[in-house]
Design brief:
By secondary structure, the chain is an alpha/beta fold. It has two domains: about 120 residues, Urease, subunit C, domain 1, CATH 2.30.40.10; about 290 residues, TIM Barrel, CATH 3.20.20. About 35% of the residues lie in helices and about 20% in strands. The strands form two sheets. Strands 1, 2, 3, 4, 5, 14, 15 and 16 form an eight-stranded mixed sheet that branches. An eight-stranded parallel sheet has the order 6-7-8-9-10-11-12-13. Strand 9, helix 9 and strand 10 form a beta-alpha-beta unit. Helix 6 crosses helix 7, helix 7 packs across helix 8 and helix 8 packs parallel to helix 9. The longest helix has 18 residues. The two termini are about 20 Å apart.
Length: about 425
């Protein structure tokens, strides 16, 4: 039995017929018609049963039984995309770092601020001092802004505790964000920075991460993946490898903040360990990108951090296309380098700053974002069997989602088959009457 049927829709399925393991070019490269690249069906219909997509296709082919549904919704010719996925965030944290914004405007670099005791370590102090309820409250407010723009899945990292108790506190707080309307994936990022009490004992801190933190995270089932920051101001490739080896021993997937500020061979290292994703990648070299393509590691591009830090070297998107690296986009929502809570803005930035096409950008927050979280069989596309997560938009063309700035055209959000909200045209606010 089906729960609901949605008709008279224009569907951006991101099912190109190439399969869920297809590279990025199959869901948004420069060649071909944009509507082919997003898997467009016009007009289309979706039948939902038990929170999953039971049937999807041209409306003319809708089985008679579905047409007689008591829960028949007319999409009014609106575009429907998969629910959006923000696959790289640091939503859980204490405090803010507005003062650093002024320092950067005066010319201070990210590395200079970090070496002076600011940056990540400033947030560590605030996060350690906040209780779990306070962390949940702050993160919930940030998450609400993402959800209002059609986000139905979000990844949340730890990494601002840098001791076992605080890291576990962050991961518990992230877990409490999950609920009706939002799916949460958690990444343990204990290897984010070196805490002050380990300033001259970096290897000892890595040992703490490997021997105490990761086993505790795994035992408590508090994370889906282990992340690390491979950079001159953070951890060396050898230290990251130790962290990844421990993660694999405990059955956890791995991800990597890679080659953001310098070429540390992070792309190749991520590929060597079969990482779900390598994120940032402004300085990644061609060989590393080729290795990522061979390993199926997704490139998560983070234009918010690039913009905020006023970087001049952008990720090698053309090389990623040539090698067939799947490209995702995310907010990198964090208190320092990307205080952003708009995934729609990242679509525009991905196009204007990094040179993505609108179709590539949309693939980056749907199908490829799902792959970056190991969820490619669960969400990110409109295909039978996947979660019934989708968004109805008041737009004439899917490219509008990347084209417009500061505009939220969400009409309705459906998550696990349930209507989460219905808004007035243009996203002005809740409609008076639900469908």
């Amino acid at each position: 039995m089906w729960d609901s049927v949605w008709i008279n829709a224009r569907l951006a399925t991101f099912d190109t017929g190439a399969g869920s393991d297809a590279p990025a070019s199959a869901a948004g490269g420069r060649r071909g018609d944009a509507k082919d690249l997003i898997g467009a069906i016009e007009p289309g219909a979706i039948a939902v049963a038990a929170g999953r997509i039971a049937w999807i296709g041209p409306m003319a082919d809708l089985p008679v039984g579905y047409q007689r549904s008591q829960a028949l919704h007319d999409a009014g010719g609106r575009w429907i995309t998969p629910g959006l996925i923000d696959c790289h965030t640091h939503l859980v944290h204490g405090g803010h770092r507005a003062a650093e914004f002024a320092l950067r405007l005066d010319g201070a670099s990210y590395e200079e601020i970090a070496k002076a005791g600011g940056g990540i370590l400033a947030t560590v102090t605030a996060t350690r001092g906040a209780d779990e309820d306070a962390l949940v409250a702050g993160a919930s407010a940030r998450l609400a802004r993402l959800m209002a723009e059609g986000v139905t899945t979000v990844e949340v990292k730890s990494g601002y505790g840098l001791d076992t108790a605080s890291e576990l506190k962050m991961l518990r707080a992230a877990g409490r964000l999950a609920g009706p309307g939002i799916r949460v994936r958690r990444s343990f990022l204990g290897a984010h920075a070196v805490p002050p009490d380990y300033a001259d004992r970096r290897d000892d801190y890595v040992a703490l991460v490997v021997e105490e933190m990761i086993p505790a995270v795994a035992a408590g089932r508090l994370a889906d993946a282990v992340d690390a920051f491979g950079e001159r101001i953070a951890f060396t490739p050898a230290q990251v490898a130790r962290v990844f080896e421990a993660a694999k021993t405990h059955g956890l997937a791995v991800k990597l903040h890679a080659d953001q500020l310098s070429d540390q061979g992070g792309a190749a290292l991520a590929a060597r360990f079969g990482a779900l994703s390598a994120d940032h990648l402004e300085y990644a070299d061609p060989d590393g990108l080729a290795a990522m393509a061979a390993a199926g590691t997704v490139a998560v591009l983070l234009p918010g951090a690039y913009y905020t830090l006023r970087q001049s070297r952008r990720p090698a998107v053309d090389a990623m296309r040539r090698h067939g690296v799947a490209m995702a986009l995310a907010t990198d929502c964090n208190p320092g380098s990307s205080p952003a809570t708009s995934l729609l803005l990242m679509l525009n930035m991905g196009c204007t700053l990094f040179g993505l096409t609108p179709a590539e950008a949309l693939a980056g927050v749907t199908v490829n974002a799902a792959r970056a979280l190991g969820l490619d069989g669960e969400c990110g596309r409109l295909v039978a069997g996947q979660a019934a997560d989708f968004v109805l938009w008041d737009i004439d063309d899917p490219a509008e989602l990347a084209y417009r700035i500061g505009w939220n055209p969400v009409h309705a959000v459906v998550s696990d088959g349930a209507v989460r909200e219905v808004l007035e045209p243009g996203g002005a606010g809740p409609a008076d009457e639900p469908w």
